[in-house]
Amino acid sequence: MAGVVWETTRVARKSGKRGSPRSRKEASAQPLERTRVTLRFLADQLGLSPASISLVLNRAPAADAIPKATQERILAAAERFNYRANTIAKSLRRQRSFTIGVLVPEISEGYASLVMSGIEDHLLQAGYLYFVASHRHREDLIDEYPKLLLARAVDGLIAIDTPCTRPLPVPVVAVSGHRHIDGVTNIVLNHERAAFLALDHLKSLGHRRIAFIKGQAFSSDTAIRWRAIRTAAKRLGLPVDPALVTQLEGDSPSPDLGYQLTKRLLSERSFTALFAFNDISAIGAIRALRECGRRVPDDVSVVGFDDIQAAAYQNPALTTVRQPLRRMGELAAQTLTSRVESGPTATHPRTIHVDPELIVRETTAPATSK
Mean pLDDT, consecutive 10-residue segments, the chain of 370 residues? Predict the structure, then answer.
């Protein structure tokens, strides 16, 4: 992209002598010369090096060493002269596009939107643009979208709850990725800790008949979290009744999936607590419990998972296992841009673990005698 031009005037000079006031006035009336506003132009105006100006305008970490007042001068000059970076030249010079591809199942309230917010926060500061492709768990799109993004010369990919099945020619970071694929860094929650926190809380309240809502078969976390739940239950001496285990089906992000499963459970079995795969299904479960005359938490305690923004504003407020989803998104973006900038020969982590936190609110209480 061509740089923005800045209009200047030159004072006429004759034989190296200063012109008269009249000649200077006439010269200023001549057509304006168009001058490209570059880093060098800004450097000349400010008496600084182009490197210092570049650091500030690109928000590079090294810019922190430049005095705040100088940074403000640079930003003010860039705005005054309407400076715009030549991104095409920058891309050609560095052999990078400064764009990232992001694969998500869908964008709605909950897991993916919180992870995306963390990704956006970092990429904005790092000077990257991004493409988002939503595949709705369709295998053909999961296979095709990486090819389309690579054709657009992305520097790397972030896969959110999306299976990575083979190595790609660019760095990849998978949020909730559990497969060990060359070139892929996985950002994963400590599910063993998460399951133990939730079940230990319910056990401390006297609950032993606990119903479970598992995630959809296509979700990256479903199998590993269910194994963690069974391990934690065994460790705590809690029974897991297969008749109280249900599984979400369909790709809708609506609470209706949890609502329907809980209605079905209530028609066949009794239980004093329910541990849902995510907050969305837990919200649907609470609606079903109320419609069937069960008070939450007096008759049935409910624990969700994720701690989406709406969880604290439900009535009653939802007890849940918090995944640091925004932080996971930031970690994914930081890790990917670091890998892009350090080059393909640099070492990188295979897995980055993050820890959960139990957030106790109003949907859990001591078990009744029923």
Answer: 36 40 40 63 87 76 83 88 65 67 87 92 87 92 94 94 92 94 96 98 98 95 97 98 95 91 93 97 97 97 96 96 96 95 87 97 89
pTM of the full structure: 0.75
State both tokens at 13.
């000079």
Q: What is the C-alpha separation between 100 and 307, in angstroms, rounded?
A: 27
Helices (H), 95-190: 111-126, 139-151
The CATH architecture that domain 97-190+325-354 belongs to is 3-Layer(aba) Sandwich (3.40)
What is the residue extent of each domain of the chain? 5-91, 97-190+325-354, 191-324
**Which CATH architecture describes the domain 191-324?**
3-Layer(aba) Sandwich (3.40)
Q: Let me know: does 323 contact 305? Beta carbons within 8 Å.
A: yes
DSSP three-state, residue 43: helix
What is the architecture, at CATH level 2, of domain 5-91?
Orthogonal Bundle (1.10)
Q: Taking Cα atoms as reference points, which of 354, 353, 331, 350 lies closest to residue 180?
A: 350
The Cα–Cα gap between 34 and 12 comes to 17
Buried/exposed code over 34-53 (b: 16+ C-beta within 10 A; e: otherwise)? eeebbbebbbeebebeeebb
